[in-house]
Amino acid sequence: MKRIFSGIKPTGHLTLGNYLGALRRWVETDQHQADAVFCVVDLHALTVEHDPGRVRRLSRQAATLMLAAGLDPERCTVFVQSHVDEHARLSYLLECTATDGELRRMIQYKEKGARARAAGESVRLSLLTYPVLMAADILAYGTDEVPVGEDQTQHVELTRDLAVRFNQRYGHTFTVPRATHPEVAARVMDLQDPTSKMGKSHEPGSGIVYLLDEPDVTRRKIMRAVTDSGHEVRYDRAERPGLANLLDILAACTGGDPEELAGAYPSYGALKKDTADAVVELLRPVRERHAELVTDPGAVDAVLRRGAERARGLARPRVDAAYAAVGLLPAG
Ligand code: AQP
């Protein structure tokens, strides 16, 4: 059975982008078709300025939302990255495989590093090395497929390069994984700035739909989405990014095709209303289940404990093999 691995960073409240780009596929497809491993990648949240209490709260919230969305711990493994030491152990070996040049080329490093410098903050070394830790997350599990939004494509490419390089130097150790993307809404854009990704760590604003927003808040955000000054509803990502974003979201919610949907709408207002209704209905069961689960944090902790135990058992033999392969003396 193929192995799937993917994760979510606790850097903010989960968004519609996380749901349509990743989480929904994990629930509806991946956990049924593969031995799937899903992780709250909390170590990745430490690469930028962070508040310890907030990271802790967001980690628990992300895990709770993953379960609320429908991940079934009887079908897949759900855990928190920092509970499994193998990720950090393997990351070091991969740092010894990667070059600083290839890490400096990563778009996210360039963008976030520039943002931090512009704000007068120092750039943490871990921001540079974060894609290597992500490679370790993936390779530790012998992963075949990594279901992610398009923003993660470059990091999965790096993971593939590191796996191939390691295997060539030290003998076959890692499966070379590939990224998979949803057919629509692989990149949900900010409703107020449709040229930039809807990201959970971005400044909170009316352009970001959070999974736990109240329905009327979600409706308002979508009704106020930036479009353009035209009238005709046409799907054109380059010329009309705001409209295309709404059509992508509606198509992802209803299972339609964004170009065909465009033809069905006489006005922007009608499109926004249907999109708002579709999003609210899509998220309703997730919000309801989340409200139940938060009343029993012990049950969520128990799932995470069992998940971490299983994850350790899956990762350890491969990470031990990698340590031996590079020439480190096995502990007696
Ligand atoms: N807007 C999006 N559209 C489609 N997929 C998305 N994903 C994130 N945003 C979108 C996918 O969700 C999974 C988990 O994302 P993440 O936690 O790695 O990143 P984020 O939500 O984008 O959080 P940040 O902290 O705001 O990230 P960055 O580092 O981009 O600044 C992934 O599969 C991701 O593709």
From TrEMBL:
Chain positions of motif 'KMSKS' region: 197-201
Binding positions for L-tryptophan per the UniProt entry: D137
Gene symbol of the encoding locus: trpS1
PROSITE patterns (UniProt xref): AA_TRNA_LIGASE_I
InterPro entries found in the cross-reference section: aa-tRNA-synth_I_CS, aa-tRNA-synth_Ic, Rossmann-like_a/b/a_fold, Trp-tRNA-ligase, Trp-tRNA-ligase_bac-type, Trp-tRNA_synthetase
Enzyme class: ligase
Primary localization class, coarse: cytoplasm
Catalytic activity: tRNA(Trp) + L-tryptophan + ATP = L-tryptophyl-tRNA(Trp) + AMP + diphosphate + H(+)
Gene3D superfamilies to which the protein is assigned, alphabetical: HUPs, Tyrosyl-Transfer RNA Synthetase
The protein's role, per its UniProt record: Catalyzes the attachment of tryptophan to tRNA(Trp).
EC identifiers of the protein: 6.1.1.2
Protein name (record): Tryptophan--tRNA ligase
Short motif ('HIGH' region): ranges: 10-18
GO cellular component assignments: cytosol
Record family assignment: Belongs to the class-I aminoacyl-tRNA synthetase family.
Cellular compartments annotated: Cytoplasm
Subunit structure: Homodimer.
Binding site for ATP: K9, P10, T11, G17, N18, G149, E150, D151, V188, K197, M198, G199, K200, S201
Keywords assigned: Aminoacyl-tRNA synthetase, ATP-binding, Cytoplasm, Ligase, Nucleotide-binding, Protein biosynthesis
SUPFAM superfamilies, per the entry: Nucleotidylyl transferase
